[in-house]
Write the structure tokens for this entry.
Amino acid sequence: SQQGEEDPQALSIQEGENATMNCSYKTSINNLQWYRQNSGRGLVHLILIRSNEREKHSGRLRVTLDTSKKSSSLLITASRAADTASYFCATEDSNYQLIWGAGTKLIIKP
Amino acid sequence: DAGITQSPRHKVTETGTPVTLRCHQTENHRYMYWYRQDPGHGLRLIHYSYGVKDTDKGEVSDGYSVSRSKTEDFLLTLESATSSQTSVYFCAISEQGNQPQHFGDGTRLSIL
């Protein structure tokens, strides 16, 4: 079953703009993780936010978590062509298994 | 990149044949996972391992078996491949069950 759902499914922006992706989930979680996948490659871990955290930063990435709304957002500031990829959220359940959303496809136009 | 190698990277085979995919890691991580990725779906967990000879089923385990005889190798076997098992298969590893996962580059499997 799919726990996380990303929104939008696809996003196309100009280089230099900010990109925001959202993730909603259904059940209680231990943590929520964001991953990036470049075309034809495996997923790369970006950031993990625990259920008792509200915001986390890593370079140009900012993740927020609202457990009352069961949602998270990933903000990429000052986007670059290299940020073109699919982005996935994954929630960790009580058995430490990750349950994945279907992803947001981000295209950065030069 | 984490030391994870999947083989083969591409395979085309026929319905009813057995298929084995291999995942090899050089990180000495305890946990290893097999996922499949299909259009319109996120990753779905097939099986995972939490140690040598210790494995458990995931969400979509029917038609798949796994084995882990060494820390570094995790094998996924389709005993009798079906067209519905056409997919991209990813192996992942993590130090512990609640740690971020590191992925291989996938095996694209086509079953005709």
Observations:
- Chain B has a mean pLDDT of 95.
